[in-house]
Amino acid sequence: MCGICGFSGNGTIDDLRRMNDALSHRGPDAEGLWSDSSKGIYIGHKRLSIIDIAGGTQPMWTADGRIGVTFNGEIYNFRELRATLEKAGHRFLSDHSDTEVLLHGYREWGAGLPSRLNGMWAFAIYDRDRGRFFLSRDRFGKKPLYHTFRCGTFIFASELSSLRKHSLFNHSISIRSLKKYFAYNYIPAPGSLYESVYKLPAGCNLVYSIDDKEHRVERYWEFALEPFETIPKNAEAAWCEQLRELIDRAVRRRLMSDVPLGIFLSGGIDSTSVSYFAARHIEPPSLRTFSIGFEEPSFDESAYAQFAAAALGTDHHHRTLSLETAKSLLPDIAGKLDEPFGDSSLLPTYLLCKESRQSVTVALGGDGADELFAGYDPFRALRAAELYGRYFPKPLHTAIGLLIRRLPVSHVNMSLDFKLKRTLRGLSYDRKLWNPVWLGALDQRELRELFTDAIDLDDVYSEAIDCWDSCRQPGLIDKTLQFYTKLYLQNDILTKIDRASMMNSLEVRAPYLDSDLVDFVRRIPAGYKYRRGRTKYILKKALEPLLPRRILYRSKKGFGVPVGKWFMTGSLSLVNNTAPPGMNAAFIDLQIDEHLCHSADNRAFLWNMWLLERHINSTDTP
Hints:
alpha+beta; Rossmann fold; 6-stranded antiparallel sheet
Protein backbone atom coordinates (compact mmCIF):
# COMPACT_ATOMS: atom_id res chain seq x y z
CA MET A 1 0.00 0.00 0.00
CA CYS A 2 1.13 3.48 -0.71
CA GLY A 3 0.17 7.11 -0.99
CA ILE A 4 0.20 8.97 -4.31
CA CYS A 5 -0.02 12.63 -5.24
CA GLY A 6 0.85 15.09 -7.97
CA PHE A 7 -0.25 18.04 -10.03
CA SER A 8 -0.03 19.70 -13.42
CA GLY A 9 0.11 23.47 -13.64
CA ASN A 10 0.96 26.05 -10.99
CA GLY A 11 2.95 25.15 -7.92
CA THR A 12 6.45 24.27 -6.79
CA ILE A 13 8.47 21.34 -5.56
CA ASP A 14 7.69 22.58 -2.04
CA ASP A 15 3.97 22.02 -2.71
CA LEU A 16 4.75 18.49 -3.85
CA ARG A 17 6.97 17.82 -0.86
CA ARG A 18 4.27 18.95 1.58
CA MET A 19 1.65 16.87 -0.22
CA ASN A 20 3.87 13.81 -0.15
CA ASP A 21 4.82 14.23 3.50
CA ALA A 22 1.12 14.29 4.44
CA LEU A 23 0.92 10.69 3.16
CA SER A 24 3.75 9.30 5.29
CA HIS A 25 1.43 7.00 7.26
CA ARG A 26 0.37 5.34 4.00
CA GLY A 27 3.96 4.66 2.98
CA PRO A 28 6.59 4.78 5.72
CA ASP A 29 9.23 2.67 3.91
CA ALA A 30 10.32 4.89 1.02
CA GLU A 31 9.40 7.99 -0.95
CA GLY A 32 9.87 9.34 -4.44
CA LEU A 33 9.54 12.84 -5.89
CA TRP A 34 9.77 13.67 -9.59
CA SER A 35 9.20 16.98 -11.33
CA ASP A 36 9.60 18.76 -14.62
CA SER A 37 9.19 22.42 -13.69
CA SER A 38 9.45 23.53 -17.34
CA LYS A 39 6.20 21.70 -18.07
CA GLY A 40 4.67 22.15 -14.61
CA ILE A 41 4.48 18.39 -13.93
CA TYR A 42 4.99 17.08 -10.37
CA ILE A 43 4.56 13.49 -9.15
CA GLY A 44 5.01 12.07 -5.64
CA HIS A 45 4.87 8.68 -3.97
CA LYS A 46 5.07 7.22 -0.45
CA ARG A 47 5.72 3.48 -0.30
CA LEU A 48 4.70 0.68 2.01
CA SER A 49 6.87 -2.10 0.60
CA ILE A 50 4.95 -5.34 0.01
CA ILE A 51 5.95 -6.85 -3.37
CA ASP A 52 9.44 -6.71 -4.94
CA ILE A 53 10.86 -4.64 -2.11
CA ALA A 54 14.12 -3.96 -3.95
CA GLY A 55 12.69 -3.27 -7.42
CA GLY A 56 9.41 -1.47 -6.80
CA THR A 57 10.60 2.12 -6.30
CA GLN A 58 8.23 4.84 -7.55
CA PRO A 59 7.46 6.92 -9.47
CA MET A 60 8.43 4.17 -11.92
CA TRP A 61 9.27 4.73 -15.57
CA THR A 62 9.51 2.74 -18.75
CA ALA A 63 13.06 2.22 -20.00
CA ASP A 64 12.68 5.06 -22.51
CA GLY A 65 11.33 7.43 -19.86
CA ARG A 66 8.17 8.21 -21.85
CA ILE A 67 5.61 6.73 -19.42
CA GLY A 68 5.70 7.09 -15.64
CA VAL A 69 3.36 5.89 -12.88
CA THR A 70 2.63 6.49 -9.21
CA PHE A 71 0.55 3.61 -7.87
CA ASN A 72 -1.29 2.64 -4.69
CA GLY A 73 -2.57 -0.93 -4.45
CA GLU A 74 -1.92 -4.51 -5.45
CA ILE A 75 -2.54 -6.28 -8.77
CA TYR A 76 -3.18 -9.95 -7.99
CA ASN A 77 -3.06 -11.22 -11.56
CA PHE A 78 0.14 -9.35 -12.44
CA ARG A 79 2.08 -12.54 -13.18
CA GLU A 80 -0.44 -13.62 -15.84
CA LEU A 81 -0.48 -10.13 -17.33
CA ARG A 82 3.30 -9.98 -17.32
CA ALA A 83 3.51 -13.28 -19.22
CA THR A 84 1.04 -11.96 -21.81
CA LEU A 85 2.98 -8.73 -22.22
CA GLU A 86 6.32 -10.53 -22.52
CA LYS A 87 4.88 -12.65 -25.32
CA ALA A 88 3.87 -9.40 -27.02
CA GLY A 89 7.50 -8.23 -26.92
CA HIS A 90 7.66 -6.14 -23.74
CA ARG A 91 10.85 -6.34 -21.71
CA PHE A 92 10.66 -5.93 -17.94
CA LEU A 93 13.39 -4.43 -15.76
CA SER A 94 12.11 -5.56 -12.35
CA ASP A 95 12.07 -9.07 -10.96
CA HIS A 96 8.39 -9.27 -9.96
CA SER A 97 6.93 -5.79 -9.57
CA ASP A 98 3.21 -5.43 -10.20
CA THR A 99 3.79 -1.70 -10.72
CA GLU A 100 5.82 -2.31 -13.86
CA VAL A 101 2.94 -4.32 -15.30
CA LEU A 102 0.88 -1.11 -15.25
CA LEU A 103 3.48 0.71 -17.37
CA HIS A 104 3.72 -1.96 -20.06
CA GLY A 105 0.00 -2.71 -19.84
CA TYR A 106 -0.84 0.94 -20.48
CA ARG A 107 1.54 1.04 -23.45
CA GLU A 108 -0.06 -2.09 -24.88
CA TRP A 109 -3.75 -1.57 -24.06
CA GLY A 110 -4.14 2.13 -23.23
CA ALA A 111 -7.47 2.88 -21.54
CA GLY A 112 -8.31 -0.83 -21.79
CA LEU A 113 -5.78 -1.63 -19.05
CA PRO A 114 -8.06 -1.34 -15.95
CA SER A 115 -10.55 -3.85 -17.35
CA ARG A 116 -7.80 -6.48 -17.34
CA LEU A 117 -6.73 -5.91 -13.74
CA ASN A 118 -7.78 -8.03 -10.78
CA GLY A 119 -6.87 -6.17 -7.62
CA MET A 120 -7.21 -2.91 -5.77
CA TRP A 121 -5.69 0.27 -7.08
CA ALA A 122 -5.54 3.99 -7.51
CA PHE A 123 -2.86 5.10 -9.95
CA ALA A 124 -1.84 8.05 -12.08
CA ILE A 125 0.10 7.48 -15.30
CA TYR A 126 1.95 10.37 -16.93
CA ASP A 127 2.09 9.89 -20.70
CA ARG A 128 4.67 12.30 -22.17
CA ASP A 129 3.92 11.50 -25.80
CA ARG A 130 0.18 12.12 -25.50
CA GLY A 131 0.62 15.00 -23.07
CA ARG A 132 -1.83 13.63 -20.52
CA PHE A 133 -2.43 12.08 -17.13
CA PHE A 134 -4.40 8.84 -17.01
CA LEU A 135 -5.89 8.10 -13.57
CA SER A 136 -7.83 5.01 -12.55
CA ARG A 137 -9.58 3.61 -9.48
CA ASP A 138 -10.46 -0.05 -8.87
CA ARG A 139 -13.90 -1.54 -9.44
CA PHE A 140 -15.23 -1.13 -5.90
CA GLY A 141 -13.14 1.83 -4.76
CA LYS A 142 -10.94 0.00 -2.27
CA LYS A 143 -8.23 2.62 -2.75
CA PRO A 144 -9.08 6.35 -2.58
CA LEU A 145 -8.30 8.99 -5.18
CA TYR A 146 -9.22 12.69 -4.90
CA HIS A 147 -8.77 15.42 -7.49
CA THR A 148 -9.47 19.11 -7.99
CA PHE A 149 -9.02 21.83 -10.60
CA ARG A 150 -7.92 25.21 -9.35
CA CYS A 151 -6.51 28.26 -11.17
CA GLY A 152 -5.52 26.23 -14.22
CA THR A 153 -3.99 23.50 -12.10
CA PHE A 154 -5.01 19.84 -11.87
CA ILE A 155 -4.17 18.29 -8.48
CA PHE A 156 -4.65 14.68 -7.33
CA ALA A 157 -3.85 12.66 -4.19
CA SER A 158 -4.78 9.60 -2.18
CA GLU A 159 -6.19 11.76 0.59
CA LEU A 160 -7.66 15.18 1.20
CA SER A 161 -4.94 15.67 3.81
CA SER A 162 -2.47 15.72 0.93
CA LEU A 163 -4.54 17.90 -1.41
CA ARG A 164 -4.94 20.46 1.37
CA LYS A 165 -1.17 20.98 1.43
CA HIS A 166 -1.10 22.46 -2.07
CA SER A 167 -1.00 26.26 -1.84
CA LEU A 168 -3.90 26.62 -4.33
CA PHE A 169 -6.32 24.39 -2.44
CA ASN A 170 -9.79 25.86 -1.84
CA HIS A 171 -10.85 25.23 1.78
CA SER A 172 -14.51 26.23 1.27
CA ILE A 173 -16.80 23.57 2.74
CA SER A 174 -19.64 22.27 0.57
CA ILE A 175 -23.07 22.66 2.21
CA ARG A 176 -24.46 20.15 -0.29
CA SER A 177 -21.92 17.59 0.92
CA LEU A 178 -22.79 18.31 4.56
CA LYS A 179 -26.44 17.54 3.82
CA LYS A 180 -25.42 14.23 2.29
CA TYR A 181 -23.11 13.52 5.22
CA PHE A 182 -25.95 13.72 7.74
CA ALA A 183 -28.30 11.86 5.38
CA TYR A 184 -25.94 8.93 4.72
CA ASN A 185 -23.32 9.04 7.54
CA TYR A 186 -20.70 9.58 4.81
CA ILE A 187 -20.15 11.80 1.79
CA PRO A 188 -20.73 9.62 -1.29
CA ALA A 189 -18.51 9.80 -4.35
CA PRO A 190 -17.94 11.86 -6.40
CA GLY A 191 -18.52 14.50 -3.73
CA SER A 192 -16.16 15.52 -0.94
CA LEU A 193 -16.30 17.85 2.04
CA TYR A 194 -14.91 20.71 -0.05
CA GLU A 195 -16.27 22.71 -2.94
CA SER A 196 -14.83 21.67 -6.32
CA VAL A 197 -12.95 18.69 -4.83
CA TYR A 198 -14.01 15.25 -6.02
CA LYS A 199 -13.47 11.57 -5.43
CA LEU A 200 -12.92 9.61 -8.60
CA PRO A 201 -15.81 7.12 -8.42
CA ALA A 202 -15.08 3.40 -8.23
CA GLY A 203 -14.77 1.71 -11.60
CA CYS A 204 -13.80 4.94 -13.37
CA ASN A 205 -10.84 6.42 -15.23
CA LEU A 206 -9.97 10.10 -15.54
CA VAL A 207 -8.05 11.49 -18.50
CA TYR A 208 -6.55 14.98 -18.15
CA SER A 209 -5.10 16.79 -21.15
CA ILE A 210 -2.13 18.87 -20.02
CA ASP A 211 -2.17 21.29 -22.95
CA ASP A 212 -5.96 21.77 -23.16
CA LYS A 213 -6.45 21.69 -19.37
CA GLU A 214 -9.55 19.61 -19.95
CA HIS A 215 -10.57 16.31 -18.39
CA ARG A 216 -13.14 13.59 -18.80
CA VAL A 217 -14.25 10.82 -16.45
CA GLU A 218 -15.03 7.49 -18.12
CA ARG A 219 -16.61 4.43 -16.51
CA TYR A 220 -14.89 1.15 -17.42
CA TRP A 221 -16.89 -1.13 -15.05
CA GLU A 222 -20.14 -1.04 -13.11
CA PHE A 223 -21.63 -3.60 -10.74
CA ALA A 224 -24.84 -5.06 -12.14
CA LEU A 225 -27.06 -7.92 -10.99
CA GLU A 226 -27.70 -10.18 -13.97
CA PRO A 227 -29.11 -13.50 -12.66
CA PHE A 228 -28.67 -16.70 -14.65
CA GLU A 229 -31.64 -17.01 -17.00
CA THR A 230 -31.79 -20.80 -16.69
CA ILE A 231 -31.59 -22.51 -13.29
CA PRO A 232 -30.18 -26.05 -13.61
CA LYS A 233 -31.67 -28.97 -11.66
CA ASN A 234 -28.86 -29.21 -9.15
CA ALA A 235 -28.16 -25.47 -9.08
CA GLU A 236 -27.57 -25.20 -5.33
CA ALA A 237 -25.02 -28.02 -5.19
CA ALA A 238 -23.24 -26.88 -8.37
CA TRP A 239 -23.11 -23.25 -7.29
CA CYS A 240 -21.89 -24.18 -3.81
CA GLU A 241 -19.01 -26.13 -5.32
CA GLN A 242 -18.13 -23.26 -7.65
CA LEU A 243 -18.27 -20.79 -4.77
CA ARG A 244 -15.82 -22.87 -2.75
CA GLU A 245 -13.42 -23.02 -5.70
CA LEU A 246 -13.63 -19.28 -6.40
CA ILE A 247 -13.20 -18.24 -2.76
CA ASP A 248 -10.22 -20.57 -2.44
CA ARG A 249 -8.64 -19.08 -5.57
CA ALA A 250 -9.35 -15.50 -4.41
CA VAL A 251 -7.71 -16.13 -1.03
CA ARG A 252 -4.71 -17.88 -2.60
CA ARG A 253 -4.11 -14.91 -4.90
CA ARG A 254 -4.06 -12.57 -1.92
CA LEU A 255 -1.50 -14.58 0.02
CA MET A 256 1.34 -13.32 -2.19
CA SER A 257 3.63 -11.09 -0.14
CA ASP A 258 7.29 -10.45 0.53
CA VAL A 259 6.46 -9.31 4.08
CA PRO A 260 4.62 -10.95 7.04
CA LEU A 261 0.92 -11.61 6.44
CA GLY A 262 -2.07 -12.47 8.65
CA ILE A 263 -5.89 -12.71 8.75
CA PHE A 264 -8.51 -10.68 10.60
CA LEU A 265 -10.61 -13.26 12.47
CA SER A 266 -13.77 -12.04 14.22
CA GLY A 267 -15.38 -15.47 14.38
CA GLY A 268 -18.05 -14.52 11.85
CA ILE A 269 -18.69 -16.49 8.69
CA ASP A 270 -16.76 -14.12 6.39
CA SER A 271 -13.48 -13.88 8.28
CA THR A 272 -13.57 -17.54 9.35
CA SER A 273 -14.03 -18.69 5.76
CA VAL A 274 -11.08 -16.55 4.64
CA SER A 275 -8.98 -18.06 7.45
CA TYR A 276 -10.09 -21.58 6.50
CA PHE A 277 -9.04 -21.22 2.86
CA ALA A 278 -5.78 -19.48 3.82
CA ALA A 279 -5.00 -22.47 6.05
CA ARG A 280 -5.16 -24.65 2.94
CA HIS A 281 -2.09 -22.87 1.58
CA ILE A 282 -0.23 -21.92 4.76
CA GLU A 283 0.33 -24.45 7.53
CA PRO A 284 -2.16 -23.41 10.26
CA PRO A 285 0.45 -23.15 13.05
CA SER A 286 2.24 -20.57 10.85
CA LEU A 287 -0.93 -18.69 9.92
CA ARG A 288 -1.36 -15.65 12.14
CA THR A 289 -4.93 -14.54 12.92
CA PHE A 290 -5.98 -11.44 14.86
CA SER A 291 -8.94 -10.28 16.89
CA ILE A 292 -9.76 -7.74 19.56
CA GLY A 293 -12.42 -7.89 22.23
CA PHE A 294 -13.95 -5.57 24.79
CA GLU A 295 -14.56 -6.08 28.49
CA GLU A 296 -18.21 -5.03 28.11
CA PRO A 297 -20.18 -8.18 27.11
CA SER A 298 -22.68 -6.62 24.65
CA PHE A 299 -19.81 -5.26 22.53
CA ASP A 300 -17.58 -8.34 22.72
CA GLU A 301 -17.56 -11.26 20.26
CA SER A 302 -14.07 -12.56 20.98
CA ALA A 303 -15.32 -15.97 22.17
CA TYR A 304 -16.30 -16.77 18.57
CA ALA A 305 -12.91 -15.64 17.26
CA GLN A 306 -11.08 -17.82 19.77
CA PHE A 307 -13.35 -20.78 19.00
CA ALA A 308 -12.72 -20.38 15.24
CA ALA A 309 -8.95 -20.05 15.74
CA ALA A 310 -8.89 -23.20 17.89
CA ALA A 311 -10.94 -25.11 15.29
CA LEU A 312 -8.55 -24.06 12.51
CA GLY A 313 -5.37 -24.37 14.59
CA THR A 314 -4.03 -20.91 13.72
CA ASP A 315 -1.47 -18.85 15.61
CA HIS A 316 -4.08 -16.55 17.13
CA HIS A 317 -3.34 -13.13 18.59
CA HIS A 318 -6.08 -11.63 20.74
CA ARG A 319 -6.26 -8.59 22.95
CA THR A 320 -9.09 -7.52 25.23
CA LEU A 321 -9.51 -3.80 25.73
CA SER A 322 -11.67 -1.63 27.90
CA LEU A 323 -13.92 0.73 25.99
CA GLU A 324 -12.45 3.57 28.01
CA THR A 325 -9.00 2.68 26.69
CA ALA A 326 -10.41 2.59 23.18
CA LYS A 327 -12.10 5.97 23.66
CA SER A 328 -8.82 7.61 24.64
CA LEU A 329 -7.64 7.14 21.06
CA LEU A 330 -10.59 8.97 19.49
CA PRO A 331 -9.05 12.48 19.30
CA ASP A 332 -6.01 11.11 17.49
CA ILE A 333 -8.12 9.06 15.06
CA ALA A 334 -10.51 11.93 14.36
CA GLY A 335 -7.56 14.22 13.65
CA LYS A 336 -6.27 11.88 10.94
CA LEU A 337 -9.54 11.47 9.03
CA ASP A 338 -9.75 12.99 5.55
CA GLU A 339 -13.29 14.15 6.12
CA PRO A 340 -15.96 13.41 8.74
CA PHE A 341 -17.09 9.79 8.62
CA GLY A 342 -20.11 8.67 10.64
CA ASP A 343 -19.51 4.94 11.03
CA SER A 344 -18.37 4.60 14.65
CA SER A 345 -17.09 1.07 14.01
CA LEU A 346 -14.06 2.90 12.64
CA LEU A 347 -12.72 2.87 16.21
CA PRO A 348 -12.64 -0.93 16.78
CA THR A 349 -11.45 -1.40 13.19
CA TYR A 350 -8.59 1.00 13.91
CA LEU A 351 -7.71 -0.93 17.08
CA LEU A 352 -7.72 -4.24 15.22
CA CYS A 353 -5.38 -2.78 12.58
CA LYS A 354 -3.14 -1.29 15.25
CA GLU A 355 -2.81 -4.62 17.08
CA SER A 356 -2.24 -6.57 13.84
CA ARG A 357 0.45 -4.17 12.60
CA GLN A 358 2.68 -5.16 15.52
CA SER A 359 3.16 -8.56 13.85
CA VAL A 360 2.31 -8.24 10.14
CA THR A 361 2.30 -5.74 7.28
CA VAL A 362 -0.54 -7.35 5.29
CA ALA A 363 -3.89 -8.71 6.50
CA LEU A 364 -6.82 -10.38 4.76
CA GLY A 365 -10.40 -9.59 5.80
CA GLY A 366 -13.97 -10.57 4.96
CA ASP A 367 -15.16 -7.24 3.55
CA GLY A 368 -17.69 -7.47 0.72
CA ALA A 369 -19.45 -10.70 1.66
CA ASP A 370 -22.33 -8.99 3.50
CA GLU A 371 -23.04 -6.79 0.50
CA LEU A 372 -22.77 -9.52 -2.15
CA PHE A 373 -24.75 -12.19 -0.27
CA ALA A 374 -27.44 -10.10 1.51
CA GLY A 375 -25.91 -10.34 4.96
CA TYR A 376 -27.37 -7.29 6.70
CA ASP A 377 -30.39 -7.09 9.02
CA PRO A 378 -32.34 -4.66 6.75
CA PHE A 379 -32.85 -7.54 4.31
CA ARG A 380 -35.03 -9.16 6.99
CA ALA A 381 -37.04 -5.96 7.35
CA LEU A 382 -37.96 -5.55 3.69
CA ARG A 383 -41.04 -7.78 3.63
CA ALA A 384 -42.38 -6.33 6.88
CA ALA A 385 -41.72 -2.83 5.56
CA GLU A 386 -43.66 -3.60 2.41
CA LEU A 387 -46.65 -4.91 4.41
CA TYR A 388 -46.48 -1.96 6.79
CA GLY A 389 -46.65 0.49 3.92
CA ARG A 390 -49.51 -1.43 2.31
CA TYR A 391 -51.79 -1.89 5.32
CA PHE A 392 -51.02 1.08 7.57
CA PRO A 393 -52.18 4.46 6.23
CA LYS A 394 -49.55 7.16 6.29
CA PRO A 395 -51.37 9.25 8.90
CA LEU A 396 -50.86 6.35 11.31
CA HIS A 397 -47.10 6.29 10.73
CA THR A 398 -46.49 9.40 12.80
CA ALA A 399 -48.58 8.10 15.71
CA ILE A 400 -46.83 4.72 15.66
CA GLY A 401 -43.45 6.45 15.46
CA LEU A 402 -44.27 8.58 18.49
CA LEU A 403 -45.34 5.48 20.40
CA ILE A 404 -42.10 3.67 19.58
CA ARG A 405 -40.10 6.73 20.62
CA ARG A 406 -41.51 6.27 24.11
CA LEU A 407 -39.61 3.00 24.49
CA PRO A 408 -36.82 3.34 27.07
CA VAL A 409 -33.50 4.30 25.51
CA SER A 410 -30.81 1.63 25.74
CA HIS A 411 -27.15 2.00 24.81
CA VAL A 412 -26.55 -1.76 24.70
CA ASN A 413 -25.11 -2.88 21.36
CA MET A 414 -27.90 -3.36 18.75
CA SER A 415 -30.66 -3.05 21.37
CA LEU A 416 -34.32 -3.73 20.47
CA ASP A 417 -35.40 -0.11 20.85
CA PHE A 418 -32.58 1.02 18.54
CA LYS A 419 -33.62 -1.47 15.83
CA LEU A 420 -37.32 -0.64 16.07
CA LYS A 421 -36.82 3.11 15.97
CA ARG A 422 -34.41 2.86 13.06
CA THR A 423 -36.71 0.59 11.06
CA LEU A 424 -39.89 2.62 11.54
CA ARG A 425 -38.12 5.89 10.76
CA GLY A 426 -37.71 4.98 7.11
CA LEU A 427 -41.15 3.55 6.38
CA SER A 428 -42.95 6.82 5.69
CA TYR A 429 -40.71 7.37 2.67
CA ASP A 430 -40.69 6.00 -0.82
CA ARG A 431 -39.02 2.58 -0.82
CA LYS A 432 -36.13 4.05 -2.81
CA LEU A 433 -35.14 5.88 0.38
CA TRP A 434 -35.65 3.10 2.93
CA ASN A 435 -32.02 2.01 3.03
CA PRO A 436 -30.30 5.41 3.35
CA VAL A 437 -32.87 6.65 5.87
CA TRP A 438 -32.41 3.49 7.96
CA LEU A 439 -28.66 3.98 8.00
CA GLY A 440 -28.34 7.77 8.11
CA ALA A 441 -27.98 10.11 11.06
CA LEU A 442 -31.04 12.26 10.22
CA ASP A 443 -34.27 11.86 8.27
CA GLN A 444 -35.97 14.40 6.00
CA ARG A 445 -37.73 16.31 8.78
CA GLU A 446 -34.55 16.59 10.83
CA LEU A 447 -32.45 17.62 7.84
CA ARG A 448 -34.88 20.46 7.18
CA GLU A 449 -34.56 21.58 10.80
CA LEU A 450 -30.76 21.38 10.82
CA PHE A 451 -30.07 23.34 7.63
CA THR A 452 -31.18 26.92 7.12
CA ASP A 453 -31.76 26.60 3.38
CA ALA A 454 -34.15 24.30 1.53
CA ILE A 455 -33.71 20.52 1.38
CA ASP A 456 -34.28 18.86 -1.98
CA LEU A 457 -34.73 15.15 -1.19
CA ASP A 458 -34.06 14.09 -4.79
CA ASP A 459 -30.71 15.87 -4.63
CA VAL A 460 -29.72 14.80 -1.11
CA TYR A 461 -30.42 11.14 -1.91
CA SER A 462 -29.52 11.27 -5.60
CA GLU A 463 -26.95 8.46 -5.31
CA ALA A 464 -29.36 6.10 -3.51
CA ILE A 465 -32.14 6.86 -5.99
CA ASP A 466 -29.79 6.18 -8.88
CA CYS A 467 -28.75 2.84 -7.36
CA TRP A 468 -32.38 1.83 -6.97
CA ASP A 469 -33.48 2.96 -10.43
CA SER A 470 -30.47 1.52 -12.23
CA CYS A 471 -31.05 -1.99 -10.87
CA ARG A 472 -32.43 -4.04 -13.74
CA GLN A 473 -34.15 -6.51 -11.41
CA PRO A 474 -37.57 -5.64 -9.98
CA GLY A 475 -37.38 -7.27 -6.53
CA LEU A 476 -36.76 -5.51 -3.21
CA ILE A 477 -33.89 -7.87 -2.35
CA ASP A 478 -32.07 -7.16 -5.62
CA LYS A 479 -32.53 -3.41 -5.35
CA THR A 480 -31.28 -3.46 -1.77
CA LEU A 481 -28.30 -5.60 -2.82
CA GLN A 482 -27.54 -2.98 -5.46
CA PHE A 483 -27.63 -0.20 -2.85
CA TYR A 484 -25.28 -1.98 -0.47
CA THR A 485 -22.84 -3.17 -3.13
CA LYS A 486 -22.63 -0.03 -5.26
CA LEU A 487 -23.05 2.72 -2.66
CA TYR A 488 -22.60 1.58 0.94
CA LEU A 489 -19.63 -0.71 0.26
CA GLN A 490 -17.60 1.96 -1.54
CA ASN A 491 -18.38 4.92 0.66
CA ASP A 492 -18.64 3.32 4.10
CA ILE A 493 -17.10 -0.14 4.48
CA LEU A 494 -14.11 0.25 2.16
CA THR A 495 -13.45 3.83 3.25
CA LYS A 496 -13.44 2.67 6.87
CA ILE A 497 -11.00 -0.19 6.30
CA ASP A 498 -8.70 1.94 4.13
CA ARG A 499 -8.45 4.77 6.66
CA ALA A 500 -8.17 2.51 9.71
CA SER A 501 -5.51 0.32 8.11
CA MET A 502 -3.44 3.06 6.50
CA MET A 503 -3.35 5.12 9.71
CA ASN A 504 -1.39 2.11 10.96
CA SER A 505 0.62 1.49 7.75
CA LEU A 506 -1.15 -1.84 7.24
CA GLU A 507 -2.37 -3.25 3.93
CA VAL A 508 -5.75 -5.01 4.05
CA ARG A 509 -6.96 -7.25 1.23
CA ALA A 510 -10.53 -8.36 0.47
CA PRO A 511 -10.79 -11.81 -1.19
CA TYR A 512 -14.59 -11.57 -1.48
CA LEU A 513 -14.12 -8.68 -3.90
CA ASP A 514 -12.04 -10.74 -6.31
CA SER A 515 -13.15 -9.96 -9.86
CA ASP A 516 -13.87 -13.58 -10.83
CA LEU A 517 -15.78 -14.26 -7.62
CA VAL A 518 -17.87 -11.09 -7.93
CA ASP A 519 -18.69 -11.84 -11.57
CA PHE A 520 -20.09 -15.20 -10.51
CA VAL A 521 -21.96 -14.05 -7.39
CA ARG A 522 -23.75 -11.23 -9.21
CA ARG A 523 -25.35 -13.92 -11.45
CA ILE A 524 -26.78 -15.94 -8.57
CA PRO A 525 -30.50 -15.10 -8.16
CA ALA A 526 -31.54 -13.19 -5.05
CA GLY A 527 -33.63 -16.13 -3.78
CA TYR A 528 -30.40 -18.04 -3.20
CA LYS A 529 -28.87 -15.19 -1.19
CA TYR A 530 -31.79 -14.37 1.08
CA ARG A 531 -34.26 -17.18 1.71
CA ARG A 532 -37.06 -17.41 4.27
CA GLY A 533 -35.43 -15.05 6.73
CA ARG A 534 -31.94 -16.50 6.33
CA THR A 535 -29.23 -14.14 5.13
CA LYS A 536 -26.27 -15.37 3.04
CA TYR A 537 -28.16 -18.59 2.31
CA ILE A 538 -26.01 -19.88 -0.57
CA LEU A 539 -22.74 -18.89 1.08
CA LYS A 540 -23.65 -20.71 4.29
CA LYS A 541 -24.67 -23.78 2.32
CA ALA A 542 -21.37 -23.70 0.43
CA LEU A 543 -19.41 -23.54 3.68
CA GLU A 544 -21.44 -26.12 5.66
CA PRO A 545 -19.00 -28.95 4.85
CA LEU A 546 -16.05 -26.80 5.98
CA LEU A 547 -16.98 -24.69 9.01
CA PRO A 548 -18.68 -25.39 12.37
CA ARG A 549 -22.41 -24.64 12.55
CA ARG A 550 -21.71 -22.51 15.63
CA ILE A 551 -19.88 -20.11 13.30
CA LEU A 552 -22.16 -20.43 10.28
CA TYR A 553 -25.44 -19.82 12.05
CA ARG A 554 -24.53 -17.47 14.87
CA SER A 555 -26.42 -14.19 15.08
CA LYS A 556 -24.76 -11.14 13.55
CA LYS A 557 -23.33 -8.84 16.22
CA GLY A 558 -21.55 -6.00 14.44
CA PHE A 559 -18.42 -4.12 15.41
CA GLY A 560 -19.86 -1.48 17.73
CA VAL A 561 -18.83 0.99 20.42
CA PRO A 562 -21.16 2.79 22.89
CA VAL A 563 -20.93 6.34 21.56
CA GLY A 564 -24.46 7.02 22.82
CA LYS A 565 -23.41 6.17 26.36
CA TRP A 566 -20.26 8.28 26.03
CA PHE A 567 -22.30 11.34 25.11
CA MET A 568 -24.77 10.52 27.87
CA THR A 569 -22.08 10.45 30.54
CA GLY A 570 -20.17 13.45 29.21
CA SER A 571 -17.16 11.40 28.11
CA LEU A 572 -17.77 12.91 24.68
CA SER A 573 -19.31 16.32 24.22
CA LEU A 574 -19.81 19.04 21.65
CA VAL A 575 -17.71 21.93 22.86
CA ASN A 576 -18.17 24.46 20.08
CA ASN A 577 -21.34 26.50 20.65
CA THR A 578 -21.18 28.10 17.21
CA ALA A 579 -22.96 26.13 14.51
CA PRO A 580 -21.16 25.81 11.16
CA PRO A 581 -22.40 28.20 8.45
CA GLY A 582 -25.76 27.14 7.04
CA MET A 583 -26.70 25.06 10.10
CA ASN A 584 -29.22 25.76 12.85
CA ALA A 585 -27.67 26.01 16.34
CA ALA A 586 -31.06 25.57 18.04
CA PHE A 587 -31.55 22.16 16.42
CA ILE A 588 -28.11 21.04 17.53
CA ASP A 589 -28.83 22.15 21.10
CA LEU A 590 -32.15 20.29 21.05
CA GLN A 591 -30.47 17.08 19.89
CA ILE A 592 -27.97 17.36 22.75
CA ASP A 593 -30.68 18.09 25.35
CA GLU A 594 -32.90 15.19 24.22
CA HIS A 595 -30.00 12.78 24.43
CA LEU A 596 -28.83 13.97 27.85
CA CYS A 597 -32.40 13.83 29.20
CA HIS A 598 -32.69 10.23 28.00
CA SER A 599 -35.79 11.14 25.97
CA ALA A 600 -34.22 10.21 22.61
CA ASP A 601 -31.28 8.27 21.24
CA ASN A 602 -29.46 10.82 19.08
CA ARG A 603 -26.12 9.02 19.08
CA ALA A 604 -25.71 9.02 15.29
CA PHE A 605 -26.21 12.76 14.90
CA LEU A 606 -24.03 13.63 17.92
CA TRP A 607 -21.22 11.39 16.68
CA ASN A 608 -21.37 12.91 13.19
CA MET A 609 -21.46 16.40 14.65
CA TRP A 610 -18.55 15.65 16.99
CA LEU A 611 -16.39 14.57 14.05
CA LEU A 612 -17.44 17.54 11.92
CA GLU A 613 -16.67 19.93 14.76
CA ARG A 614 -13.14 18.60 15.09
CA HIS A 615 -12.57 18.82 11.38
CA ILE A 616 -13.80 22.41 11.12
CA ASN A 617 -11.71 23.46 14.12
CA SER A 618 -8.54 21.89 12.75
CA THR A 619 -5.82 24.16 11.37
CA ASP A 620 -4.61 21.83 8.64
CA THR A 621 -3.44 24.46 6.15
CA PRO A 622 -0.18 24.78 4.17
